[in-house]
Amino acid sequence: MTCGDGPGLSRDYRVVIRQADFDPDEALTIVEACLAWEATVPGLSLTPSIGQCEGYRERVICVGKQANLPEPHVAETWRTPLVDGAVVYIEPGWVDLSVASHEIGHGMGLHHDAPGTIMCADVTCAAGEPTPDDAMQWYRVRGIIPDAD
Questions:
Q1: Neighbouring C-alpha atoms within 13 Å toward the C-beta of 95
Q2: Is 149 helix (H, G, I), strand (E, B) or coil?
Q3: How confident is the model at residue 71, as a pLDDT?
Q4: How many Å apart are CA 24 and CA 148, to the nearest integer?
Q5: What is the pLDDT of residues 25-57, one digit of tens each?
Q6: Assigned CATH class of 12-141
Q7: Cα 132 to chain centroid, rounded
Q8: Distance of alpha carbon 67 from the chain centroid
Q9: Where are the domains of the chain?
């Protein structure tokens, strides 16, 4: 499986919340972000866990904290074209549903999108949680045409 746009992207990921980085309320916020994505995207499975993770692993989104990210970022997600997985860093004090959902979206291969979506490039224009337009991007980058209900 490779990273990037196209059918090689997964429909299921483990989201590993680095144990040493987050207090229980922050970890719960990241779990809630996973649940928000699953509620918005039928067919998506995100399995959160608390543990240790370093580097890129197939179908794993590793979430940790890191201070002093380059301005104006409150979080960053790193992906590699070799693995369908990601490493997410969130600035201390910025662990909320919107930021966590946005970065998990990047971890799944999504790109910045229009205002009013969770994938909007700035926290001031982002939705509070994933939207149907975010779900459409999730399907689109995987080459999936969702069923019309």
A1: 23
A2: coil
A3: 83
A4: 39
A5: 999 999 999 999 999 999 999 999 999 988 899
A6: alpha beta
A7: 16
A8: 19
A9: 12-141
Q: Enter the tokens of residue 101.
A: 């959902």
Tokens of 132: 């149907």
With vertex at residue 4, the alpha carbon angle to CA 16 and CA 99, rounded to the nearest 5 degrees, is: 45
**Whether 91 contacts 66, CB under 8 Å:** yes
Cα-Cα end-to-end distance for the chain: 30
Give pLDDT tens digits for 53-90: 888 999 999 999 999 998 888 999 999 888 999 999 99
| Cα–Cα dist 144/7, whole Å | 8
CA-based nearest residue to 36, from 3, 28, 90: 28
- pTM of the predicted model, to two decimals? 0.92
Token pair of 56, please? 């890129």
CA distance 96 to 29: 6
Can you spell out the DSSP letters for 16-74? EEETTT--HHHHHHHHHHHHHHHHHSTT-EEEEEEE---S--TTEEEEEE-SSPSTT-S
Closest residue by Cα to residue 39 from 140, 108, 131, 127: 131
Q: Supply 103's token pair.
A: 């970065």
- Residue type, position 1, single letter: M
Please check whether residue 21 is in contact with residue 64, taking contact to mean a CB–CB distance below 8 angstroms.
Answer: yes
